[in-house]
Structure formats: C-alpha cells, structure tokens
Write a structure and sequence with these properties.
Layout lengths: L10 H14 L30 H5 L6 H19 L3 H12 L32 E10 L2 E10 L4 H13 L5 H5 L4 H7 L1
Length: 192
C-alpha cells in the first residue's frame, strides 16, 4: 500500500499544493512573478533562445531561488505544456516538487549541481538507451520504506528533460488516462 492510499501525502496532493502555491488558485505568492515574464521563442523545437537560457548562470551554483528556477524553465514548460495540453504552471510545479525548486537533482555533485538535469526524476528502465545516473532512493515495498539504488535518466540540459518528459508520457499506456484529461489540471494530477 502506498502512503497516499493510507491517507498520507501522495504525489497528487503535493502537486496540487505546489500548483496552488504558484498562484493558480488566486493566491499571491512570491513565485507568481513568473506569470509576468516575457515569452521568448526560438526557431528550434523548444521555445527558448540560448541567450535567454544562460546555462552559465546556473551551471556553477544551480538555481538561486524559486524565481530563478521558474524564469529559466518557464519557456520549456510552456512548450511541453502545449504539446501535452497541460497547463505549463502544472509542469513547473511538478519540476519544483521533484527537485526542491532545483536544489536537489539526481546525480548532483558540488561541481555539477544540476546532475543529470532530470527535472521529473524519471527512472531509466530497460528500454532507456540514453545516459544513466545511479542514485540511492527511498522506495515503498509492501507499504514499507526501503532504501535502494536506482537508475535515473540523465540529460545534457533542462530542454532535453522536458522533451523526454513529453515523449515518456505519450509513449506509455500507463499515462493515457492522464493525457485524456490534460485540460483539467486537477484531474490530470490525480491520473498522473
């Protein structure tokens, strides 16, 4: 039995809280500033200009704060959200939840704070042919927490992470119901 089934805080509940904290429920929070950031487009598949996504500004120390995290990832979330039919704010909330606003990436080291740029903590199954990072993780087996080593997908950039997230969801029967209700953020979160 999973913690959420026991009345604990499950992924759905945490995403809804994070999503609401982004100001989508009408509340004003420090992070709602990202709604007024100018939209940036590029001719590449993702709507981001490399000069806007200044990798050097985040490569040495990671993201400075939630606003910095959102500022750099918003164009990617907008493109991925449009591809999936999901609110970009929801994808930002999920990435924030999975990485602690960019403070905790799988494979992060002092010299490489973004680790494998895996914003959604997607594991590397047998079908994954790309780079991997091994990480100790806490899993629940028969309702009990078990520490084990797991393989996670690694990416060269946040853009690759968002692109793979879209492909991962689209390519899995497991997420068909979530994508079927993508226009309803709360229903999407529950199905996810």
């Amino acid at each position: 039995m999973e913690p959420s089934a026991q009345g604990g805080l499950g992924l759905s509940d945490m995403l809804i809280r994070q999503f609401d904290d982004l100001g989508t429920a009408g509340d004003v929070s420090p992070v709602t500033q990202f709604n007024s950031l100018p939209e940036r487009r590029s001719p590449t598949s993702m709507p981001m200009v490399s000069s806007f996504y200044d990798a050097e500004s985040i490569s040495d120390a990671g993201y400075r704060d939630p606003e910095h995290f959102v500022q750099h990832l918003r164009p990617l979330a907008e493109n991925a959200g449009a591809s999936l039919g999901v609110d970009a704010n929801l994808l930002l909330a999920q990435a924030a939840l999975e990485t602690g606003w960019g403070a905790h990436f799988v494979g992060a080291t002092p010299g490489r704070p973004l680790g494998g740029h895996n914003l959604f903590n997607i594991k590397a199954g047998a079908d994954w042919q790309g780079p991997r990072i091994s990480q100790s993780t806490l899993e629940f087996r028969d309702g009990l927490p078990v520490r084990e080593s797991a393989q996670f997908r690694a990416y060269a950039s946040a853009q690759e992470s968002f692109e793979d997230y879209v492909e991962f969801l689209r390519g899995s029967v497991r997420y068909e119901q979530a994508l079927a209700v993508a226009g309803d953020s709360r229903a999407y979160i529950r199905e996810l």
